[in-house]
What does this fold into?
Amino acid sequence: MKTIEVLDGGMLTTVQDLGRFGYQRYGVPTSGALDLFSMRAANRLVGNPDDAAGLELTLIGPRLEFVVPATIALTGADLGARLGDRPLPRWESVVVEPGAVLSFSGPQDGVRAYLAVAGGVDVPEVLGSRATYIRSRLGGIAGRKLEAGDAVHVSGDRPVLLGGALQLPVPHRPIYGHAHLLRVVLGPQDDRFTPNGVHTFLSSTYSVSPQSDRMGYRLAGAAIEHLRGPDIVSDGTPLGAVQVAGDGVPIVLLADRGTAGGYTKIATVIGPDIPRLAQAAPGDEVTFDSVGLDDAYAAVRVQEAALATIGPIRHGPDVARLRKVAAVVATVASLQRR
Amino acid sequence: MIVEFGDSIDPAINRRVRELFLAIERAAVAGVRDLVPTYRSLLVSYDPLRTTFDSLRSHLSELDAHLADTPLPPPRVVEIPTAYGGTFGPDLGFVAGHNHLTEDEAIAIHAGTDYLVYMMGFSPGFTYLGGMSERIAAPRLKTPRTAIPAGSVGIAQQQTGIYPVESPGGWQLIGRTPVSLFDPSRHPPVVVEAGDYIRFVPVTLDRYSAIQDEIQRGTWTLPVWGVTT
It folds into this structure.
């Protein structure tokens, strides 16, 4: 059902889901939402399964007109969303009326917002996913970003969710800021760097370069010293791989990365910290902290627990109760990290 | 998790990568999300909520110990009809001259070998091929072209390959095939896979056009042979 008319596409608005799996062996990148936490939260807030497709909005948001009633949720970055002439709350489901226009006044915190619509964005599946991969024009709306005049269709015949509104409790809503600590597991080629090089990597503050995109975040800062050159016989590139080429600066590989690469990878950013990097803007500070696999698994469980707190909106004293729950979750997380 | 079998480009190492790849596929190991086989290693992406590194490692070690139970299918040779030279291969003259050969000699060398597909990557449908003769090696272009048509066959140093989709690139172009190496509407989206061999078969421009027509009508079948070696 045609649900949204695109009045203005914004800077880079694409259809994304959790990604395209099973085709990396043929050289097809996974693509999918860069900030999977926000994408999944948006879906859950409107009653969708995690893998439903939604929109990823980048920095300068689009202008969208709803042509039928719909339940929506906006998560991730604060891009200054307005519904009509009022601010649109993030991290909760909202019912919009036909004729309502969603617009954005400009980024306040973070760079990528996610818009889910009950039912999920309906575009044809390509190789098992609706995610847009612009370089090869795969998925999404004609394999490209949204443009004025596009119609966004939603699956099913019930874009309005029955029952009350849902929210992610305030204590679990991320605040991004401009300094990002990313936890990494060292390897697979950390042995191709000098001890000094590994120390440089873990102790330096890097700055996000303007040449950062959905393929990867290039960082500027202290050069990391190789043991015997940056070249390896090509192997697979996991999500979050920190690749260090000949210039010694790290690049963190993200959803649109090539499936294999011929440069050394010193470490891998743990999954639950990728959303933080996905919200980093050029000039933001990035530092790395080495953790073990058990810490990484614990972080995954903490993130799942946060998503599981999504529930009906309550008012008054319940907020205090939710803050207490969050404090317990945070304490457990810090204990597990030790 | 990355399972490394070596750190060189070697058909025997590559074969072991593909053996484990196939064993994991067949066993449908719980928690495995995706597999990326490369020259000499296998990237295994897993869901940490469904399995752990340790349990996955012991599962894969077990599979690795019983690889004989899942023998690789016999390799295939996939024929890629290729029109060499002319507007399709503007750099054939350079490649031949660089190696003190005539164009026909360069074509005969390029088409005279079956190339092992070690892995796919770089871009959708791109094959990393092994086995090109040093006698037709040539440096990359000093200035890459901004748009190379899909199906272009090129040489860069001692590598040869086919551009699966239109893209920029710096390889010396020696010919073009009408065969589409990557088509997301097909299942699978590729016509050759890691472990196959590619054989370039020289065709005339007339034959190229005829094959192109057949592909468009959906009546073309790619010649595929078994290997007896």
Notes: Helices of chain B lie at 11-27, 53-65, 92-98, 103-111, 205-217. The two ends of chain B are 33 Å apart (CA to CA).
